[in-house]
């Protein structure tokens, strides 16, 4: 049995309009709407599997099968055809808990000890329990929690950090 050969035409980026996210970037498309580009894998018939964790588009999750169309030479995402079963959270890590400030080492105890910053420690713990984590900038994590990961324990872990002022949690799409 031979495995399918992946070609560049099978993996593309799709653009989706972003609405309702207070964490959305201040950039916008030529039409004046805020957009996010995501990696998708073609499965035929203008259907694609979402292969990146959405950072700002709140109605999508890693693994969703989405419907896209070509417009003005670019692929645009128009909706979810089949849910993949994952949930998405966005985490904003507070500056006070990071050993780096303005790209320079500061007096933070973690920096002096050579430890990774809080963002990297949180990302590492989430990855260890089976989540997929995408980093954006120095403070933002987009987290995909698959259907086989215990959402209750993830929520408890993150809520404790939020209560301590370490991070802010903003849900993306929560699978029921």
TrEMBL record:
<protein>
    <submittedName>
        <fullName>DUF4265 domain-containing protein</fullName>
    </submittedName>
</protein>
<dbReference type="InterPro" id="IPR025361">
    <property type="entry name" value="DUF4265"/>
</dbReference>
<dbReference type="Pfam" id="PF14085">
    <property type="entry name" value="DUF4265"/>
</dbReference>
């Amino acid at each position: 049995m031979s495995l399918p050969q992946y070609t560049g035409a099978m993996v593309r980026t799709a653009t989706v309009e972003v609405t309702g996210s207070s964490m959305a970037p201040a950039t916008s498309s030529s039409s004046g709407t805020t957009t996010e580009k995501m990696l998708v894998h073609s499965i035929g018939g203008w259907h694609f599997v979402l292969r990146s964790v959405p950072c700002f588009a709140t109605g999508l999750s890693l693994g969703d099968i989405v419907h896209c169309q070509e417009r003005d030479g670019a692929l645009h995402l128009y909706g979810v055809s089949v849910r993949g079963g994952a949930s998405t959270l966005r985490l904003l890590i507070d500056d006070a808990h990071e050993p780096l400030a303005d790209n320079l080492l500061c007096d933070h105890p973690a920096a002096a000890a050579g430890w990774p910053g809080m963002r990297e420690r949180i990302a590492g713990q989430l990855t260890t329990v089976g989540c997929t984590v995408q980093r954006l900038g120095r403070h933002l994590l987009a987290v995909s929690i698959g259907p086989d990961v215990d959402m209750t324990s993830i929520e408890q872990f993150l809520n404790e950090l939020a209560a301590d002022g370490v991070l802010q949690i903003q849900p993306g799409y929560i699978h029921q």
